[in-house]
């Protein structure tokens, strides 16, 4: 049904690609992160909540069609539908059906509900294509309520010490999750320009997020005292942050699970908060599909595929793709001084 090509995952019968990494005629997109939604294709199809995010990232004149969760379109005789992935706003698994055979391409996903994005829903299929960003047994997340309780206490401790609290998080996805789940902790958020741009688009689309204040060269230094500040990873360690002194830096990432990563990122605190499934979540998702054939993409793909084969009794294999990890500092944040129309980040 699907082929793995040098342009991406291809469906010959429907003549479309899923998350292609090179320009194609028709691209079916799982979500708006830059490693899955790339500029240059002629037509795009995505879940309806992703439409404004794709236009933000790829240009306002993008030729894109949005489809609600669970509704289908047909390309030739191939049925295509989107189903919640729980990764971020608008993220979706792509279900492809033809002549009684069903494949599901997961994109990126997490199984714990973050309170904002549409919760993950397993989709029964014969073949499942899964990510494995955190596909090692060492990656096991605490409940979100526990993580956010820790962040809240850290903020309160910083305020008692007269410090600003700077949280590092990817500008699309993680930053909105922080704002939504910390909205009762503080009535005021100051943010980097990349996050302010994204935040405006998300709020304009109707999502219940708190207002933010964009940090500019004109923002007075006294505004940063005891403030909660959110910035993308690309801003950490830059001259942009010097104005916040005294401050404490907290990095929000699944990579904080590994001892030493907090020190390497020069962070004062590390919060294990990921928008990807952990080891148990990956196993849970695979099992829930009922699939007997599993292809494993980006992350610890060889390890996870081998485990599924040897311990799960599945026909599993590693597939090389150009998908990456948006939890790393990609340097591809939207332009904070100009419009992002046409930005291929």
From TrEMBL:
Extract the ranges annotated as region (Disordered): 324-345
Give a GO molecular function annotation for the protein: RNA endonuclease activity
Which residue stretches does the UniProt record annotate as biased composition, category Polar residues?
333-345
Q: What is this protein called?
A: Putative mRNA 3-end processing factor
